Structure formats: C-alpha cells, structure tokens
Amino acid sequence: METRIRYMARSPILQTEKAFSTDFPVDHVDDARSTNLVADDRPVTVHAIQDPNQWELDTHGFCILRAEVHLDLDRIDTHRREVENAFWYDIEAILHEKFPRYSRIEAYDLTVRRRDLDFPQRVRQYDPSHEQPAEIAHSDTSQRGGFLVLQHCFPGQDDYWKHKDFDIINVWRPLRRPTDDWPLALCDYTTIDQENDLLLNDAIRRDTISENSLMHFNAAHKWYYLKDQGINDLLVFRNSDSGGKRARGFHAAVWNPKATGPPRESVEVRLVAFY
C-alpha cells in the first residue's frame, strides 16, 4: 500500500522545549498553544503481512493472535460498562493463555473509534462516545507514561505495583468487516533507531497528564498492516514496559487509497501485564 505516515518534524523549538500536545481547545486562553509539534507527513510503503506467525512481541513489538472474542455491538453504546467488562475478561484470558509469563493482567481502558466521513480534513474535538483514527506514529505510553497510567487508573495501589516489572499492552481489532478503511499500521521495532527516532511527548488531557512516544522520520523504518483483518484477528502490541528495555509497537492509522469499505470502526483494549 502506497500511503503516508504522519511523523513529527525535528523542529528547532524541541531543542529548548519538551514536546507537548492537548486534546481540547485552548483558544480562550491568551497566548496558549495546544501543541509545539509540527507534523511531517512522509510517503511510505506499508507492506501487507504475509505470515501472521512470523511476528513476535519481544522482537518486533507486536504479534497477531487469532481468537474468537465476543463483543455486543448492539449494547456497547447503551450498556458500556457491562459490555466493557465482558470484553476485558475475554481479552485477559486470551493473553494469559498466550503469555503464561504474566502473573496478573488487568485491563483499564476500552476505546471505540468510528471514523467521521470528513476525517481527516476535519477532526472534531473530543467525543466521549468514540474517537477518530490516530494518524500520528506513536506508542500510547512511554516508560514514565506507563507509571503515570497506573497512578491514574489504579489509585491507592502503589504499594502493589511500584516495585514490579510490567508491560503496557494494547489489543486492537475492527468492530466490523470489511476493514480496509484507515487500517492500523505497525512499525517493525528492529528498524527503529532508539537514540534518534523517538520523541517524548507530554500528552495533556482533560483529566490527566501522561507521556507518550512519537516518531521522527527515518527511511529505514518498515511498516506493515494486516490486510482484510477480521474481527477475530487481534493485533497485540506493547506500548511500554517498566524498565524501558523491551520492543514496542509504534503504530498509526493510515489512509488506504484503494479502500472500498465503509468508514473504519475499531475497538482497542489497553492493559497492564505484570510479570
């Protein structure tokens, strides 16, 4: 697939300011900025995955699992908590079976994305019912961001996790088929220059501040996607780990110039997995 990836430019301001971004308007505040980042869109070939079994979480930052997971689409908007808990339970069980090294797995977030017809020309402000595809190349949390997530999502449990080794994991799948509109692309971790390609970013949200990792362009990067991904094809990738040493799954939603299906609908679960 010939498309583009939204990287972040190596702007001079990043030599004196830490990168930051918000997901809410700040126009009402004098001299306020919603971000100090500058987009750097690059033409990229995103390769279709030929053999799902060749990708390993600890080498490439992501893997592909095939499993039947129940998600009640008729009730996800009206009975969100009940549907969310059932889906979390299924995903946690699948990960425990695939990765027995984890002693405890806890889901903490479920995000539904439904692409608006005028995305990406127009990106609406935050809607609590659903989000838009995320076209910036990123991982959801940095090493520090993983600890901030635990503080926010599991308050009062610091004594349990502060000395433990853990991963922050994402499991992504489409809600419906066909799924060729704005698919999720993943970067092979072995092609990333850890010293020069990555950028720490303060992610400022309405109710919390976290830290994620963004990417600068490097022609060595190799990007892949799961063509014709079904609802039982689970993309599993690591966002961060407590030690900052393991492979991570940098990812981005990408425009498919040959898409024939309806606007993309997807669901993702974020989890902490303790060793």
UniProtKB/TrEMBL annotation:
Keywords: Methyltransferase, Transferase. GO terms for molecular function: methyltransferase activity; oxidoreductase activity. One of its GO terms (biological process) is methylation. It comes from the Eukaryota. Belongs to the asaB hydroxylase/desaturase family. This is CmcJ-like methyltransferase. It comes from Apiosordaria backusii.
